[in-house]
Amino acid sequence: MGSGTLALDDFRGLVGQKVGTSRWFLVDQARIDAFAEVTEDRQFIHVDPEAATRTPFGGTIAHGYLTLSLLSAMAADAVPAIQGATMSLNYGFNSIRFLSPVRVDRKIRARFVLKEMKARDAGNWQSAFEVTVEIEGEDRPALIAEWLTLTSLGKA
């Protein structure tokens, strides 16, 4: 992960604290179009710049799920890895709220707060992160979520 490696006890000591902020990620039309193709969600508000100019957004916007899908890259950029981790998995979300659209050619980044960390079974840990995805130059975030991950320590 992008912010170095921490021993398990040091990582656990971060509960209640901000653990990192990612770099800015550009959400351009090429990224939006590629996401539309992969997901087969080709709604005009995402892929038709001319038609989208007639909406309240004044142009295309990213899919909410595109913004959400970038959390993995943002976490890799911002959240320290746990020493001895052999695997980390997406476990799900307790909540997700899409608060503001991400307009084309805007940059986004995520702030991660470690809300909780608990042992699941031998060598496996569940973390809950409060995540806020900010839009450069805007006061209101694109999304907020409580994201759950599982990390395995020890043998692969």
Summarize this, please?
This protein has 156 residues and is an alpha+beta fold. It has helices at residues 8-12, 29-39, 44-47, 49-52, 64-69, 71-78; strands at 5-6, 18-21, 25-27, 81-82, 85-98, 106-121, 124-135, 143-153.
Explain the layout of strands and helices:
Blueprint lengths: L4 E2 L1 H5 L5 E4 L3 E3 L1 H11 L4 H4 L1 H4 L11 H6 L1 H8 L2 E2 L2 E14 L7 E16 L2 E12 L7 E11 L3
Parallel strand pairs: 1-4
Antiparallel strand pairs: 2-6, 3-6, 5-8, 6-7, 7-8
Structure description:
It is a single chain. With 156 residues, this protein is an alpha+beta fold. The chain has a single domain (5-27, 62-153), classed as Hotdog Thioesterase (Thiol Ester Dehydrase, Chain A, Roll), CATH 3.10.129. The protein is 24% helix and 41% strand. The chain has helices spanning 8-12, 29-39, 44-47, 49-52, 64-69, 71-78, and strands at residues 5-6, 18-21, 25-27, 81-82, 85-98, 106-121, 124-135, 143-153. The strands form 2 sheets. Strands 2, 3, 5, 6, 7 and 8 form a 6-stranded antiparallel sheet that branches. Strands 1-4 form a two-stranded parallel sheet. A hairpin with a 2-residue loop joins β6 and β7. The radius of gyration is 17 Å and the shape is elongated. The model has no long low-confidence stretch (mean pLDDT 95).
Q: Which residue ranges are poorly predicted, with pLDDT under 50 across at least 5 consecutive positions?
A: none
Instruction: Give the amount of beta strand, in percent.
Output: 35-45%
Helix content: 10-25%
Compute the number of structural domains: 1
Order of helices and strands: EHEEHHHHHEEEEE
